[in-house]
């Protein structure tokens, strides 16, 4: 490889490493934010126990 290609490869390696760090930090932040609703007892992914026809206010 020529010197310019080596420099480019090194810059790419550093950029990819920084991107991975950022994405891991974002994932940790989302995991912490996702665990907050469970602390108060509500599960945003739980089905609504009232059923699909429970909201008749729009009729």
Describe the fold and architecture:
By secondary structure, the protein is mainly alpha-helical. Helices cover 63% and strands 0% of the residues. The chain is rod-shaped, with a radius of gyration of 23 Å. The model has no long low-confidence stretch (mean pLDDT 79).
- N to C succession of SSEs: H
The termini sit apart by 70 Å
Strand content: under 5%
Question: What's the story with the biggest beta sheet?
Answer: none
Shape: rod-shaped
Share of helix, binned = 55-70%
The DSSP helix count reads 1
Oligomer: single chain
Number of beta-strand segments: 0
> Averaged pLDDT, please?
79
Which structural class do you get from the secondary structure elements? mainly alpha
| Integer-rounded radius of gyration | 23 Å
Low-confidence stretches: none
Labels describing this entry:
mainly alpha, 0% strand, rod-shaped, 59 residues
Quick take:
This protein has one helix at 3-39.
Blueprint of the fold:
Layout lengths: L2 H37 L20
């Amino acid at each position: 490889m020529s010197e310019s290609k080596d420099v480019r490869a090194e810059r790419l390696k550093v950029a990819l490493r920084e991107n991975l760090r950022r994405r891991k930090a974002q994932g940790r932040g989302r995991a912490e934010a996702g665990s907050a609703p469970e602390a108060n007892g509500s599960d945003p992914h739980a089905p609504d126990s009232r059923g699909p026809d429970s909201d008749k206010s729009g009729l």
